[in-house]
TrEMBL record:
Pfam families, alphabetized: Pyr_redox_2
Organism: Candidatus Marsarchaeota G2 archaeon OSP_D
PANTHER family noted in UniProt: THIOREDOXIN REDUCTASE 1-RELATED-RELATED
Domain spans labelled FAD/NAD(P)-binding: 11-300
Record keyword 4Fe-4S present: no
Gene3D superfamilies: FAD/NAD(P)-binding domain
Keyword Cell inner membrane: no
Protein name per Swiss-Prot or TrEMBL: Thioredoxin reductase
């Protein structure tokens, strides 16, 4: 792993994020010959939340996990480096012998001439007692990722819209009993999906309710729910809880460094440029109104070309508007794309 020291370890670009936007950006910068690092907590991001993607061009049906890994293999083949860590701070720096950016994680610091922020959004927390304590010990935010760990067990799903319904539908084939907690008389979402979920034999709807506490010893054992009409509280014995209530842009550490909108999304122009020169952004973390994997991939490629042109300018070299070259991969990786 790179130790983050300044000097020869300065990257041309650091891409923050390992899903469609970030991996596409890394592929494009690497193919343009830029020394590229991907800094990410995981590979796939929100794509891991679905076991079947049907609207990514070229793949009539593919799991989010498989698509993410194909994108990663493609980027790796052109020399992209990966570090699995979380960005917690970014600032301008002159430690590189000129203007660059210092990226901080809990464990290291990395330097780059340019940055592409493409870390998407993160699952929204419930914000109830016990949630933080039992993360990874019964509390999950990804039914597709963690569902197999709860095979033949009892679980609770707290859901909003189709996201929650999809989670219930998926878990119904794995878990013994699923208690579906929602805040209305009837689940909210696509009518056909609502009907399908309510017909499942192992589903126990818990309407007009909210989760107020998670209880256990070393792992989750019970979920306390409160009826929003009667205020009556009930304990549901459960081995796990899946929290499917949407996503938020965790960009507070960027406040004052970049322009954010009222949703805390990064404001970008049509070329992926942010309010700070040398910093670009793409994907769901930006203010684009459409949150789709294919759109994120396109934005990642756009931001990458903008980053490339920026690096070329500060190096006194010509810019480019495309990536049409035929290049052989640096690594002997079989790309099944």
């Amino acid at each position: 792993m790179d130790d983050g020291s300044v000097g020869s370890n300065v990257y041309d670009v650091i891409v923050v994020g390992g899903a469609a936007a970030g991996l596409s950006a890394a592929l494009y910068t690497a193919r343009q010959g830029l020394k590229t690092l991907v800094l990410t907590k995981d590979i796939g991001g929100q794509m891991l939340l679905t076991d079947e993607i049907q609207n990514y061009p070229g793949f009539p049906s593919i799991s989010g996990f498989d698509l993410a890994n194909k994108l990663k293999e493609h980027a790796e083949a052109y020399g992209v480096e990966f570090v699995y860590d979380e960005l917690v701070g970014i600032e301008e720096s002159s430690e590189c012998g000129g203007l660059c950016f210092k990226l901080k994680t809990p464990y290291a610091e990395y330097h780059a001439l340019s940055v592409v922020l493409a870390f998407g959004k993160t699952p929204r927390d419930l914000g109830v007692p016990g949630e933080q304590e039992f993360k990874g010990r019964g509390v999950s935010y990804c039914s597709v990722c963690d569902g197999p760990l709860f095979k033949s067990k009892n679980v609770v799903v707290v859901g909003v819209g189709d996201q929650g319904l999809d989670a219930v539908n998926y878990l119904a084939n794995l878990c013994s009993t699923i208690y579906y907690v929602f805040g209305h008389d009837r689940p909210i979402g696509s009518q056909d999906l609502v009907e399908e979920v309510l017909r499942l034999p192992n589903i126990r709807p818990v309407p007009n309710s909210k989760v107020v506490e998670l209880v256990g010893n070393k792992k989750l054992e019970r979920v306390v729910v409160e009826n929003t009409k009667t205020k009556e509280r009930t304990e549901i014995p459960a081995d796990g809880i899946f929290i499917e209530i949407g996503y938020v842009a965790k960009t507070d550490f960027l406040k004052g460094f970049l322009q954010l909108n009222e949703k805390k999304e990064i404001v970008v122009d049509k070329e992926g440029r942010t309010s700070r020169q040398g910093v670009f952004a793409a994907g769901d973390v930006t203010d684009t109104p459409y949150k789709q994997a294919v759109i994120s991939a396109g934005q990642g490629s756009t931001a990458a070309l903008s980053a490339y042109n920026y690096v070329q300018r500060i190096k006194g070299k010509p810019a480019s508007s495309a990536d049409w070259r035929s290049l052989k991969p640096k690594q002997n990786v079989e790309l099944k794309l």
